[in-house]
C-alpha cells in the first residue's frame, strides 16, 4: 500500500527548539525566478500561503481555486493539495506545527480553529496590507532572532488570525454554530473523523468518543452545517478515497482496505453512489 507523499518542514527551514517547528519564507525566495509546480501531496504541518501578488491554480482536497492577488490559503495537516504558482508571485509562505502554535486561551483557540477550517480567503487590497504587515513582522522576528522572538511570533500569529477571520468575504464557509460549546464539539468531531475514518464509521462510536448521545451529536452537526453525522462520515470516507485514488497508484482494492472495507465490491458501490463514478472511472476522469 503506497502512501500519499508527505512533505515535512526540513531542518534547513525550521526553527529547531523545544518550541516546535516553524518556518516563514519570502515567496520570491521560494520561486527563485521560476514557476512552481507541486503535484498532489500533503503536509504534517499547517501551511499558510499569503500572496500579495499571485497567479496560478491551487487545488485543496479537490476544490480548485484560481490564485489571485491579495489571497490567503490555509491548509491543515493531512489535507491533499496541488499548487501551480507563477514566477512573479510575491508574498509569504509560513509553516508550523501544533507544538509551536496552539493557543491556550479558549477564545483565541476557537478563533484559530475557525481560521484553520477555512482554506481560502481573498480580501480587499487595502485590508490585505494589514495582514501583510503582520507577516512582515513575523518574518523579521524569525530572521533576526532577537530576545523573545518566539513569543513575538506567536503574538503576531494571534493578530494575523483575528484579521483573517474579520476580513473573510465568504463567512458561510466557516461553520456557523449556535454557541461556543456547539462549535467546539463540532470541531472535535471533524478532527476525530480525519483521524479515525479508516476504522470507525458508526455514529455511536463518535458520540461515545465525545461523551454524547447520537441524538445530541446529530443536533450539533445539524445546527453547525445542516447535515447529519452520517452525512459527514460518508463525506470523509469519499474524501479519503479520492485522496488515495489520485495521489497514489494504489489499486482500488488497496484503497478499500485502507478505508476498512474487506468487500471491495461494496466499497465500489458506495463510492459510485456518492460520486456518480466508479473509483477507476473517477481516477481516469481526473487524470
From TrEMBL:
<feature type="domain" description="HTH araC/xylS-type">
    <location>
        <begin position="187"/>
        <end position="285"/>
    </location>
</feature>
<protein>
    <submittedName>
        <fullName>AraC family transcriptional regulator</fullName>
    </submittedName>
</protein>
<dbReference type="InterPro" id="IPR037923">
    <property type="entry name" value="HTH-like"/>
</dbReference>
<dbReference type="InterPro" id="IPR003313">
    <property type="entry name" value="AraC-bd"/>
</dbReference>
<dbReference type="Pfam" id="PF02311">
    <property type="entry name" value="AraC_binding"/>
</dbReference>
<dbReference type="GO" id="GO:0043565">
    <property type="term" value="F:sequence-specific DNA binding"/>
</dbReference>
<keyword id="KW-0804">Transcription</keyword>
<dbReference type="InterPro" id="IPR009057">
    <property type="entry name" value="Homeodomain-like_sf"/>
</dbReference>
<dbReference type="InterPro" id="IPR020449">
    <property type="entry name" value="Tscrpt_reg_AraC-type_HTH"/>
</dbReference>
<keyword id="KW-0805">Transcription regulation</keyword>
<keyword id="KW-0238">DNA-binding</keyword>
<dbReference type="Pfam" id="PF12833">
    <property type="entry name" value="HTH_18"/>
</dbReference>
<dbReference type="InterPro" id="IPR018060">
    <property type="entry name" value="HTH_AraC"/>
</dbReference>
<dbReference type="GO" id="GO:0003700">
    <property type="term" value="F:DNA-binding transcription factor activity"/>
</dbReference>
Amino acid at each position: 500500500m503506497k502512501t500519499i507523499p508527505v512533505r515535512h518542514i526540513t531542518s534547513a527551514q525550521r526553527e529547531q527548539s523545544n518550541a516546535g517547528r516553524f518556518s516563514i519564507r519570502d515567496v520570491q525566495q521560494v520561486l527563485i525566478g521560476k514557476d512552481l509546480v507541486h503535484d498532489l501531496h500533503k503536509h504534517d504541518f499547517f501551511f499558510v500561503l499569503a500572496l500579495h501578488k499571485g497567479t496560478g491554480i491551487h487545488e485543496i482536497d479537490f476544490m480548485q481555486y484560481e490564485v489571485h492577488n491579495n489571497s490567503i490559503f490555509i491548509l491543515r495537516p493531512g489535507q491533499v493539495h496541488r499548487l501551480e504558482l507563477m514566477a512573479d508571485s510575491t508574498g509569504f509562505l509560513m509553516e508550523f506545527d501544533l507544538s509551536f502554535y496552539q493557543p491556550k486561551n479558549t477564545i483565541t483557540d476557537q478563533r484559530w480553529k475557525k481560521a484553520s477550517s477555512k482554506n481560502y480567503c481573498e480580501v480587499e487590497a487595502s485590508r490585505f496590507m494589514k495582514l501583510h504587515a503582520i507577516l512582515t513582522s513575523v518574518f523579521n522576528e524569525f530572521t533576526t532572532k532577537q530576545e523573545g522572538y518566539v513569543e513575538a511570533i506567536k503574538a503576531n500569529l494571534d493578530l494575523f488570525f483575528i484579521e483573517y477571520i474579520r476580513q473573510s468575504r465568504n463567512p458561510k464557509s466557516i461553520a456557523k454554530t449556535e454557541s461556543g460549546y456547539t462549535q467546539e464539539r463540532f470541531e472535535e468531531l471533524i478532527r476525530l473523523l480525519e483521524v479515525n475514518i479508516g476504522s470507525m464509521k458508526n455514529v455511536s462510536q463518535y458520540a461515545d468518543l465525545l461523551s454524547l448521545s447520537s441524538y445530541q451529536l446529530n443536533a450539533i452537526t445539524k445546527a453547525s452545517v445542516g447535515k447529519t453525522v452520517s452525512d459527514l462520515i460518508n463525506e470523509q470516507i469519499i474524501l479519503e478515497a479520492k485522496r488515495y485514488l489520485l495521489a497514489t497508484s494504489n489499486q482500488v482494492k488497496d484503497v478499500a482496505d485502507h478505508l476498512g472495507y474487506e468487500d471491495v465490491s461494496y466499497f465500489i458501490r458506495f463510492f459510485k453512489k456518492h460520486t456518480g463514478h466508479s473509483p477507476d472511472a473517477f481516477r481516469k476522469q481526473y487524470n
